[in-house]
Design brief:
Blueprint lengths: L6 H4 L18 E5 L2 H8 L4 H11 L7 E5 L2 H10 L4 E4 L7 H12 L4 E7 L4 H6 L8 E5 L4 H23 L3 E5 L3 H22 L6 H7 L5 E5 L2 H11 L3 E6 L3 E2 L5 H5 L8 E2 L2 H12 L5 E5 L4 H7 L3 E4 L5 H12 L5 E4 L6 E5 L2 H7 L5 H9 L2 H8 L3 H8 L9 H20 L4 E2 L11 E4 L5 H16 L9 E4 L3 E4 L1 H10 L3 H4 L5 H10 L7 H11 L3 E7 L15 E4 L5 H18 L3 H9 L9 E7 L3 E3 L2 E3 L2 E6 L15 E5 L4 H4 L5 E3 L13 H6 L4 E6 L15 E5 H7 L6 E5 L4 E4 L7 E3 L2 H4 L6 H16 L3 E9 L5 E10 L19 E5 L2 E2 L2 E12 L10 H18 L3 E6 L21 E8 L14 H7 L2 E6 L8 E2 L1 H6 L2 E4 L3 E15 L4 E5 L13
Parallel strand pairs: 1-2, 1-3, 3-4, 4-5, 6-7, 6-8, 8-11, 11-12, 15-16, 16-18, 17-33, 36-37, 37-38, 38-39
Antiparallel strand pairs: 9-10, 13-14, 18-21, 19-20, 19-21, 22-23, 23-27, 24-25, 24-32, 25-26, 27-28, 29-30, 29-31, 32-33, 34-40, 34-43, 35-39, 36-42, 41-42, 42-43
Helix pairs in contact: 7-8, 10-12, 15-19, 16-19, 17-18, 18-19, 23-25
Length: 1013
């Protein structure tokens, strides 16, 4: 089918329309100029403001105007001095025309104010109007005692004020009403507006939440009133691309030379052309063969000619006038339901009530009916009337003249609706609606409470993706968040109260006892159908994640405190519902587990302030037999405190792993890579490191584990598997290399035999999938939007055809009290420092270390004793581990080098209690610094600092005041190593951004610097 669709309509991008900037100019304050008697007549029993307010509320309109009444110029000036008036309604009385004088005085001082004449209907109206200069007024109306005319006047003026801007901004439509009879348009406008506003209320239900629905009503069609042929044709020519239809009288003036004559055309002695309406509609028909044209006339003789020329006709004398007009608007201008008809019999085939309805039925409509509607542009007009401008504007250009293939039209309409619904879903937290949530839906909430921390983070990420279409610029690579429904915090409150759970929850009962109480409790049955709809839409396993008020908060690191469960996708929906309910209750229970309560106390929060929302989310991954997992999971940080080589701190760092992301959270062996340097992977730089420090296991969801036997441990149905399992299951394409034991080399890609190394070589070095570029954008736009460094969780599915889906799972600010550096480390005076490095890795502050262990050296230092140094340090390190203490380790050359001539050949367990490791470059022992590459993974995992100090360059190389340590008594000393202890803690400061670090002396031991030995 795709081959039949021309390229321009096969791949297209819809431009979204925002309703926020529409109807920006409004009438807020109305001044009625009338003598008290006429004003009272207008207000009937003095309640015009209340009636208008009620009219507005019933139609879901906002900003009802306020009314002020004056009868003299002095009163008017008093009001205008304190109030900004937007509209003046002038009511000339039956006895005098003083109101005109007052209105002219106001207009003279405030020429921008809109003025209209509102006169009680009487036979003397025409005579009185003929003698007045009406040029200062916008319109003349006839008061028939109905307050909805006032609303129509206000809406007509507002439409006029906003027409130009709203058409340019969003492509809003207009209905042109051509009528010179003051009495007639004063009676038809309230009907017309009442219907249009009611329709806009109906179509606003296409919006995803109440706020969006209110904004959407601003996109309703506008009404423009013309009173002469020339005025009407001028308006049409100017806005013809946005004209929804024309309603025209037959007899009205053809042209006029004076503004006053146009305003009061129906009341002036201006000559009327009995054919003006026909001339106008014929001229318009020549330009647009399908525009709906409606003729209204009190002369029934005009009906035959109108229908002969293809115009619709309404009889002004008919008592059914407003009903007839409404039917025509419904049938021909796109209001109401879209009715597919049989072109021969005009019988109704089917009614379409919403966009989703159209999407579901487009392939079921009979061919001849589709052809009838497509060829007349009905689809585009219906969408336009409903303010679905992006799709309408796109389909408007896909005409039958350009593409004569019904099935291609069906596919184009379907694709456009899908793209529009996806675009509208992104960045919006919709209210969950069973009728709308399907596989194209995206993010919805159940309940009216808070989304919680993770929920807010997801909604925020969704918005970041929406506002940066660059994310989806790469062919075959889509970026989005997983399908998500959030059970808001009010659902949690209701569950806790209805099941009387607070007593057990707040008690000191063991976790498993609390869990059992929660599992026996009942969730409201009203959500069952919602959950079934969600199962149907996702058709994948579901993650049930905590989203508490405090979690992922900007100011408190609450990540990972509560539980996340996963359940498999089951054909038996009731069994799946059973598991889902158990998982939700288990997440709720985790708020009250012992660790959670302890954490609350530690962070000075009160447990009963905590509220829990729950995120139901499709699990990113694919099925491999009974296992389910993604090809890539990862955590991305926009700050890298351990940059090596060409990397900088601001370029960020990603940790990648095969399988579920729980593996990374649990501290598994990941592949660290900077998205800006994807070819520079330290773990793959040497074969020995690659074999030792790459992933050997991964996590997968057990799809066979069915049942509601939920445990306190949320990983009870997560399997830890060996990488060779993934190789058998065929999930390693593009992400693995193969170790050849015969040639002792590692080759990119999958080959028979040999151990598989998780190197992600296909996506990092061979451009199979633009992962580095997407990670760069995620960091850049995420950090920009949050205005601070961020941590982002993500997962990715890769397909055999080199396409893939990248899912953003979570974003949170990088907050750690340890990592708040106020002082400038580089500016600290030398006399306060024990040592300083201008080439350091790591970030943060700690002030609980009192010990320094250093290798004894002088100018005659030799590396010959390094193996003995290693055994001394291993023994001393064990003592620190036994006592639960940490220390600063200082020594020449590369720590951890396998070549003892280059440094001390320790393994990580031999120095694991060190808080800072310092490598020295000496005068007669110059070894290129390693920057900790030998145990880089451990440094980063445990936040250990790694300093390099070159004693040959006293200022820029750094500073080490060994003489202070030499003068102190030793806690322990061997021939090669010395251990000293300060009475008070040293202060360790590391600035990961600037890559400078220092160890400060305790305040009472600051010593003036001497020359270094």
């Amino acid at each position: 089918m795709e081959s039949q669709i021309p390229q321009e309509w096969n791949k297209f991008i819809l431009k979204d329309v925002t309703f926020v900037n529409l109807m920006m100019r409004r009438i807020y304050n109305v001044l009625i100029v009338a003598n008290p008697y006429d004003a009272f007549m207008l207000e009937d029993d003095g309640r015009v403001e209340e009636k208008i307010f009620n009219e507005y509320m019933e139609l879901g309109l906002r900003y009802p105007p306020t009314f002020t009444q004056v009868s003299t110029i002095a009163e008017a000036e008093e009001v205008l001095a304190t109030t900004k008036i937007d509209l003046v309604i002038c009511m000339p009385g039956t006895a005098d025309n003083d109101a005109f004088t007052v209105a002219r005085a106001i207009k003279g001082k405030f020429p921008e104010i809109h003025c209209v004449v509102l006169t009680p209907f009487s036979h003397g109206i025409t005579r009185r109007m003929q003698d007045e200069d009406l040029s200062i007024f916008d319109y003349v109306f006839c008061w028939l005692g109905n307050t909805n005319l006032i609303m129509s006047i206000i809406k007509l003026i507002e439409d006029k004020m906003n027409l130009e801007h709203d058409i340019k901004e969003a492509g809003v439509q207009m209905i042109l009403l051509v009528e010179d009879s003051i009495r007639f348009y004063s009676s038809i406008l309230p009907n017309l507006y009442g219907y249009i506003l009611q329709q806009s209320q109906n179509f606003s239900t296409e919006a995803l939440n109440r706020h969006a629905a209110n904004l959407r009503m601003r996109g309703r069609p506008k009404v423009v009133l013309a009173r002469t042929y020339e005025e009407a044709l001028g308006i049409y020519e100017r806005y013809k691309n946005n004209c929804l239809g024309v309603i025209s009288d037959v007899r009205f003036p053809y042209h006029s030379t004076k503004r006053s004559q146009i305003v009061g055309a129906g009341a002036s002695s201006l000559e009327k052309d009995p054919e003006a309406g026909f001339k106008l509609l014929e001229a318009i028909r020549r330009e647009d063969e399908f525009l709906p044209l409606i003729m209204e006339s009190s002369e029934s003789a005009n009906r035959e000619r109108a229908e002969r020329e293809g115009f619709r006709f309404v009889d002004k004398n008919s008592k059914m006038l407003s009903v007839d007009l409404r039917h025509l608007l419904e049938e021909h201008m796109g209001f109401g339901d879209f009715i597919f008809r049989d072109p021969k019999t005009h019988a109704v085939i089917t009614r379409i009530r919403s966009l989703k309805d159209l999407q579901d039925n487009i392939f079921k409509i009979p061919r001849d009916s589709m052809l009838y509607h497509i060829s007349r542009n009905h689809m585009s007009r219906w969408l336009t009337a409903r303010a679905i401008f992006p799709v309408a504007n796109f389909l408007k250009h896909v005409t039958w003249h350009k593409l004569q293939d019904v099935d291609a039209h069906r596919q184009i309409i379907f694709d456009a609706i899908v793209q529009y619904r996806h675009m509208k879903n992104i960045g919006v937290v919709a209210v969950f609606d069973r009728g709308k949530f399907d596989k194209y839906a995206h993010f919805a909430r159940i309940g009216d409470g808070s989304l919680g921390g993770k929920g807010r983070g997801l909604a925020f990420l969704d918005n970041v993706v929406k506002t940066h279409p660059q994310f989806n610029q790469y062919p075959g690579a889509s970026v989005r968040i997983p399908k998500t429904v959030v059970l808001c915090t009010d659902v949690f409150d209701q569950f806790m109260e209805q099941n009387n759970l607070y007593e057990i929850a707040l008690s000191d009962a063991p976790d498993d006892v609390i869990l059992q109480h929660f599992l026996r409790a009942q969730l409201p049955d009203s959500y069952i159908d919602d959950f079934f709809t969600f199962f149907e839409a996702t058709k994948s396993p579901i993650a049930i994640r905590s989203s508490s008020l405090l979690e992922d908060s900007h100011y408190q690191p609450f990540a990972g405190i509560y539980s996340t469960y996963m359940i498999p996708y089951l054909e038996d929906k009731y069994e799946m519902l059973h598991m889902l309910a158990a998982a939700i209750k288990s997440v709720y229970a985790s708020v009250y587990y012992r660790d959670s309560k302890a954490y609350m106390t530690a962070t000075s929060n009160v447990i009963d302030q905590e509220k829990m929302a729950v995120i139901l989310q499709e699990v990113v991954g694919k099925s491999y037999g009974d296992h389910y997992y993604p090809n890539i999971s990862g955590v991305l940080r926009s700050l890298n405190y351990y940059p090596i080589g060409d990397e900088t701190a601001e370029e960020g760092i990603a940790s990648l792993a095969l399988g579920l992301g729980k593996y990374i959270v649990d501290g598994g062996q990941t592949l660290r890579v900077s998205p800006y340097h994807p070819a520079q992977v330290l773990q793959m730089s040497e074969m020995e490191i690659a074999l030792r420090e790459t992933q050997t296991h991964f996590y997968a969801l057990d799809m066979k584990h069915v049942g509601a036997d939920f445990k306190v441990d949320d990983g009870f149905n997560i399997l830890k598997l060996k990488v060779k399992e993934a190789d058998k299951e065929g999930s390693l394409q593009y992400i693995a290399s193969t170790f050849d034991p015969y040639d002792q080399v590692i080759r990119d890609g999958l080959y028979e035999g040999g151990r598989k190394i998780i190197s992600f070589c296909g996506v990092l070095q061979h451009d199979v999938f633009p992962l580095p570029q997407i990670l760069q954008m995620s960091m850049k736009y995420g950090a920009e939007a949050m205005r601070r460094p961020v941590e982002i969780e993500f997962a990715c599915n890769l397909n055999a055809d080199k396409t893939g889906e990248f899912y953003l799972l979570q974003i949170r600010p990088i907050v750690d009290s340890k990592q708040t550096l106020v002082e400038d480390v580089a500016a600290l005076p030398d006399e306060e420092c024990l040592l300083r490095s201008n080439n350091s890795l790591g970030h943060g502050i700690s002030d609980d270390v009192t010990d320094v262990v250093y290798v004894k050296y002088d100018d005659q230092f030799t590396a010959m004793h390094n193996p003995a140094v290693a055994s001394d340090i291993e023994r001393i390190n064990q003592k620190f581990l036994d006592e639960g203490r940490n220390y600063v380790l200082v020594g020449p050359g590369r720590w951890g080098s396998s070549d003892s001539w280059l440094g001390v050949p320790v393994k990580w367990p031999h120095i694991s209690a060190a808080r800072v490791i310092v490598e020295l470059v000496l005068r007669n022992y110059r070894v290129d610094p390693s920057q900790g590459t030998h145990f880089f993974q451990n440094l980063t995992s445990f936040g250990v600092g790694y300093f390099t100090i070159d004693t040959n360059r006293p200022s820029e190389g750094g500073l080490f005041r060994k003489e202070i340590l030499d003068q102190m008594p030793a806690v322990e000393e061997t021939a090669l190593v010395r251990h000293v202890r300060f009475d008070r803690p040293l202060r360790i400061m590391m600035d990961g951004k600037k890559q400078v670090g220092a160890v400060l002396l305790p305040e009472n031991e600051v010593v003036e610097t001497n020359d270094q030995p």
